[in-house]
Amino acid sequence: MAVYKFFPTKDATIYSYYPNMNTGIDPILELGNLNPLTNPSPQVSRFLIQFNQAEIESIIDNRVGSGNKFSSSLKCFIAEAQGINQETTVEAYPVYGSWNNGTGQYLDSPQTTNGVTWTNRLLSGSDNQWITSSFPTYVTGSYTSGNEGGGNWYTGSNDTNNTNLVVSQSLAYRTFKDLNLNVTDIINVWYSSSNSIGGFTDISNEGFILKFSSSVEFAADFDVQPQLQYYAIDTNTIYPPVLEIKWDDSSFETGSLSEINTTDLVVALDNNPGIFYSESINRFRLNVREQFPVRTFQTASIYTTNKYLNSSSLYAIKDLDTNEYVIDFDSQFTKVSCDSTGNYFDIYMNGLEPERYYKILIQTTISGSTIVKDDKYYFKVVNG
To answer: What pLDDT digit, counting tens, does each position of 315-362 carry?
Structure first.
């Protein structure tokens, strides 16, 4: 199994109330629908985010395999949430049209206008504006009178080739506010379009636009004022947005090894030098034996005899300081593999924040008991 993480190449929030303000290097991405008492018109915010298409294609071609299935998720991590007093839906669409990141921040004075805004895709000027009428086939945008702009995106509406371009997540008062959007179909369309694979309408990767549903945006109701702030790529925290691609590359061939069948077991992590560069891909190996072996008469030490964990065994990775899962146990995508030497799994270090320590956890089920081994399997990722 494998998990590969991409960080954004650019992201920015666009604001209807500040239609010419660029926020390309702001540390926060924002979704909102505010109804301030000083202005009767609701103030809407959306954000755009893009990942490198060449890197996506390289992973699919060289790691996943172009004919194999994978799952892809867009994850954004909450910084602050307000006004979620009822179920609210966040939607993500593939962007239509190129856009420029810019170098602005929220409420710069004077405003920075050298990148994407509510009105413009690239720079300020009439030649660079978002389309507000006569939309191309399968494309739409904001067309509320007085709030024209706000981006353009593919809807998939009436497109029999691309029927799953709308991705959404419902948030309620007591639910987690982190976004975890399954964008597999959108990634497939981008990949297929770039490689001239038939069966899809061509859509180039111009990133995602995230917004509240139409029932929330521009709702002139003081009871409908959700505001969600997420960490951007320019954050100084460890929570920038990520695009995950996960696939099952596990293999289970035990050779002449014996399966461990007792819950009293010792699992030691091998092939762990402790420090890895961000570009590293490491194959960790597990040495497995009984904690209390049965006495036998043999010429070799029983402690040197490696056994294997069964095929339902999984691994996970936690940030050592925050104790948060960076990669959680997943019965489909974090399987532990096995060969004639023993169990193993591969970790791509690129998706782990550098200059931080991580720990590995191993989970297995034996005789109906689920066991999690957390025996100080630590390592650090450093900048290359």
So the answer is: 999 999 999 999 999 999 999 999 999 999 999 998 899 999 999 999
Place of tokens 């504006």: 129
pLDDT for the residue numbered 177: 95
Contact residues for 143 (Cβ-Cβ < 8 A; gap 6+): 132, 133
The H or E element that residue 181 is part of is strand 179-182
By C-alpha distance, which of 208, 232, 242 is closest to 26?
Answer: 232
Task: With a cut of 50, list the residues of the chain below it in pLDDT.
Answer: none
pLDDT at 146: 74
Tell me the DSSP string of 76-116.
E-EEEEE---S-EEEEEEEB-S-----S--TT-SSPP-SS-
Q: Quick one: pLDDT at residue 173?
A: 87
Please, which residues have CB within 8 angstroms of residue 361's CB and are 6 or more apart in sequence? Answer: 315, 316, 317, 318, 329, 372, 373, 374, 377
Indicate the burial class of 32 (C-beta count within 10 angstroms; 0-12, 13-18, 19 or more): buried
Q: What is the pLDDT of residue 150?
A: 94
- Percent of the chain whose pLDDT exceeds 90: 73
- Nearest residue to 347 (alpha-carbon basis) of 282, 301, 287: 282
Q: Which one-letter DSSP state was computed for residue 343? A: E
Strands 378-382 and 275-277: parallel
- H or E element in which residue 10 lies: strand 10-15
pLDDT at residue 313 in the model: 97
Contact 132, 118 (CB under 8 A): no
H or E stretch covering 45 = strand 43-50
Distance from C-alpha of 67 to C-alpha of 83, rounded to nearest angstrom: 44
CA distances from 9 to 174, 192, 208, 244 (A): 32, 21, 12, 14
Distance (Å, whole) CA 317 – CA 284: 12
Q: Look at residues 240, 46, 22 and name the one whose alpha carbon lies nearest to residue 122.
A: 22
Rg over CA atoms, the chain: 24
Tokens 């056994």, residue located: 307
- Is the CATH number 2.40.10.10 carried by domain 265-382? no
- In the structure encoding, which two tokens stand for residue 339, read together? 């060969």
